């Protein structure tokens, strides 16, 4: 029991070494927005550009709304795997992220009560702006 308690204290004290304050704030803000089912609060975590299409804004909001019935079991910032796409082309227009991508936010959901959908994770690409972690959106390449 003493060993388990010591291990727990060690993990609690060192967890901050793996995520900086900006990352921890983003994780907490995401969890708070999800728990409150607050789409507006979630959208405040996303970096939009004035040129971000309204359709993109709507799709991001709808994607978040679709996660609201699920119970979040973990929110964590992770390193990039190197396979993430940061641009795409539609109808001859190239879209790029609103900030350079530096990490990703992974939200894991409890599988309990999900029914047939079985969606277990959502991942958002992250960038940094003014010392804050932001979920990136897309915009037409300038």
Mean pLDDT: 85
**Count of helix runs:** 4
- What pattern of helices and strands is seen along the backbone? HHHEHEEEEEEE
CATH topology: Nuclear Transport Factor 2, Chain: A
Q: Oligomeric state of the chains?
A: single chain
Number of domains: 1
Q: How far is it from the N-terminal to the C-terminal residue, by CA?
A: 59 Å
Structural class: alpha+beta
Give the strand tally: 8
Radius of gyration (Å): 17 Å
CATH architecture: Roll
CATH class category: Alpha Beta
Which regions contain 5 or more consecutive residues with pLDDT less than 50? Answer: 1-18
Largest sheet: 5 strands, mixed
What percentage of amino acids are in beta strands? 25-35%
Instruction: Report the principal-axis shape.
Output: globular
Strand order in the sheet with the most strands: 1-7-6-5-2
Concise synopsis of the structure shown:
With 142 residues, this protein is α+β, with helices and mostly antiparallel strands. It is built from four helices and eight strands.
List keywords for this structure.
single chain, 142 residues, alpha+beta, Nuclear Transport Factor 2, Chain: A, five-stranded mixed β-sheet, disordered N terminus
Describe the structure.
- The chain is an alpha+beta fold.
- The protein has a single domain (21-140), classed as Nuclear Transport Factor 2, Chain: A.
- Helices cover 37% and strands 30% of the residues.
- The chain is built from 4 helices and 8 strands.
- It has helices at 2-18, 21-36, 39-43, 54-67, and strands at residues 46-47, 72-78, 87-90, 93-97, 103-109, 121-129, 132-136, 138-140.
- The strands form 2 sheets. A 5-stranded mixed β-sheet has the order 1-7-6-5-2, with helices on one face.
- Strand 6 (121-129) and strand 7 form a beta hairpin.
- The chain starts with a helix and ends with a strand.
- Mean pLDDT is 85; it is low at 1-18.
